[in-house]
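Pasting two entries for a bug report.
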Amino acid sequence: MTPWNVALTVIAGVVAVAWMVPLWMALTTAMKGVPEYVRDATQWTLPRDPATVFANAGKAWETAGLGPGFAASLGYGVVGAALAILFGSLGAYALTHLQVRGRFPGRAGREERQENRFVVQFRLETYNTFNHAEFNSVNNTATFATAATAGSARPSQSDSTFGRMNGTLNPRYLQLALRVNF
């Protein structure tokens, strides 16, 4: 390992220990009863009965009146998440299923000036952004066979492409550009 990697590993270890020590103290203190907490002068000892944490949580819940605040937070969290899912779903449906008419060109870009000597421009341009098919034209030329050639008393259509689309316009175009002026 390089000295740089060793230094990063040591720094990461120190940060991890500095983060874990308060967490360790909070957890072990919550697992101790009042007599055990008062009798032991150090925070580093392990609790004798870790199940004491449930009794301590119940006592804190009752004496501090955490019930209404917890219920309000739970309500805000559930309602907020439900609304986020609802509006996100509606937006996703609109983006994927609803058809938007038109070809919607779009452009986004950024310009940076470097020491008054260079101007760097980055651009993204789109045409037919939503990639909707737009048809060129309809084949409106009909050719009919005459009664003599077709062998019937009335004319019949002999062109099978009558009324069909001739093709579509260009699909979506995306263009990236980087321009440097100096």
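Entry 2 (this is the one that rendered wrong in the viewer):
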Amino acid sequence: MFLASSSYSYPILGAFWTIFMIFLWVIWFWVLITIFIDIFRSHDLSGWVKALWFIFILLLPLIGVLVYLIARGGKMHEHAARDARVQEQEFRRYVQDAAGSGNTADACSARTSPARPSTVRPWPKRPLLAPSGPEVHRCREAGN
């Protein structure tokens, strides 16, 4: 009898409302984390101003978040755009470095010469597998 009565105490509208509230909580924490990240990554704010923003948002969360978004929302966008630009440039530099110059003679000499220790990269410059394909065959035909 208890099982039958409990099925009517939580209708489908209640389930949707619960999902909606969980969604709002996730969005709220996402906004808070994004704002805290922006506060501590801002180079144009001094340490004391960062601390004041942090305390203001911590003590009065809703008002603090709204005031921060109004006051520094444009700077948040500038910081995100700058970070995306830097990440894109690093990615392009990595792809160009990994792809090489495209010249077969350069590719052959790069394989036979020792690696230069002038730059340290967190990723391998060349694939870890044995090279194969038409470029290797051209190197073998050229005698390198």
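Dev reply: Rendering is fixed now. As a check, the viewer should reflect this: Residues 61-99 form the longest helix (39 residues).
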